[in-house]
Amino acid sequence: MSMDMRTAIEEAIEKSKDLWLDKTPDGYKYEVYASYDDELSDGQIIEILKSNDPRLDFYEKVNESYFWYEMEVRGDLEGKIRSALVREDGPFPNGLTASQEDEFELLMEEMVEIQIPFDHYLKQQVRVNIMLDTGDGNFDYVLNATYPSYCGEYKDTVDNKASIVWLAKSQGYTKTQLKKALRSEDKIDYSSREKIGLLASIRKEVLNITSHMNTLTFLVEMSLDDCIRLNELVRLQDRFGHHYDATKNPYCGYVVIDKDTSVGLFDPWNGGGSLFEIELEKDLRLPIKFIRSALPDGGDGYSVSGVYGMCGSAWSDCVKIIHGPLKLTA
User: Fold this and answer.
1) Of the candidates 222, 214, 258, 224, the residue with the CA atom closest to the CA atom of residue 38
2) Rounded-to-integer distance, Cα 271 and Cα 292, Å
3) How far apart are CA 134 and CA 137, in angstroms?
4) pTM of model > 0.85
5) β-strand partners of 82
6) Which of 1, 2, 77, 229 has the fewest CB within 10 Å, making it most exposed?
7) pLDDT tens column, 258-315
8) Which distant-in-sequence residues (6+ apart) come within 8 Å of 213 by Cβ?
9) Does the pLDDT at position 1 exceed 50?
10) Which long-range contacts (CB under 8 A, 24 or more apart) does 100-104 make?
11) Contact yes or no for 293/129 (Cβ under 8 A)
């Protein structure tokens, strides 16, 4: 009595010593390993994060990059197992008929999974610029260029939607305290490496901006998996329609950023900015509704590394929590 094809394939796999297949509840798997230094490029990551469905696009891109290797592995496995089946002492010594060949190929596809190393790439560390829009985006990001910046005047008011106002309030200060600090005389030795505190460091940052358009920017390092997750939450801003005023965006969750994060005012449109020396005094809870973009350096205009010549240590693993909304309500 001839052996059925599924049983024949299973026996051939179990007897083989060079197929490198692992048994699974659903069949067998062949695990593909990536080189330790094999990474997605910043350009590929930017394309993924800017797509309509970043996670789906990630899987499609990685799958595509392994397509020919997967075909090579499958062809090799099928060749070895087919040879075992049609040997003189095998279950099909006279060879496979056309219908048996079709059944063999279908069963091999069903029974053997080629496991692509997605986790390797999801763990890849990415240097990300988190840029804010706290309502100042509706004013072309000019609200932070207040006094004492080169283009500000002492009499100017500080707009409530300026990101420096939001930052001061998030750290426990009032707008009045911020305004007083901005208008204070220089009594601090800015050349000293001693900590000067949030308000004085905001004044120092505003004083040294090189253009009138600036967005509050955080330099963070995170896994690609976390970066995809964050960008998925950023997309929730537009789930009820796009608002040019970010203060009208719906709740999208929040991230908690360590107080030692590099923070500064940056102009990605003209390639300028300030010192990146704003000093947070405590960990910052940042509403995702206020994130303009969270992309690899250079993904949203000029790169910080290109403008400043910064080395990678300026970006740090400082995102402590990424929390999404439990219910998608307005």
Assistant:
1) 224
2) 17
3) 7
4) yes
5) none
6) 1
7) 999 999 999 999 999 999 999 999 999 999 999 999 999 999 999 999 999 988 889 9
8) 140, 141, 142, 145, 267, 269, 270
9) no
10) 100/5, 103/5, 104/5, 104/9, 104/78
11) yes
Domain boundaries defined on the chain: 5-122, 125-323
Amino acid occupying residue 31: E
The C-alpha atoms of residue 297 and residue 305 are separated, in whole angstroms, by 7
Measure the N-to-C terminal CA separation of the chain; round to a whole number of Å.
67
Helix (H) or strand (E) holding 125: strand 125-132
Separation between Cα atoms, residue 261 and residue 217, nearest integer Å = 10
Percentage helix, strand, coil for the chain under 3-state DSSP, each rounded to 5: 40, 20, 40
Residue 193 burial (CB count, 10 A): 6
The tokens 């056309």 sit on which residue? 98
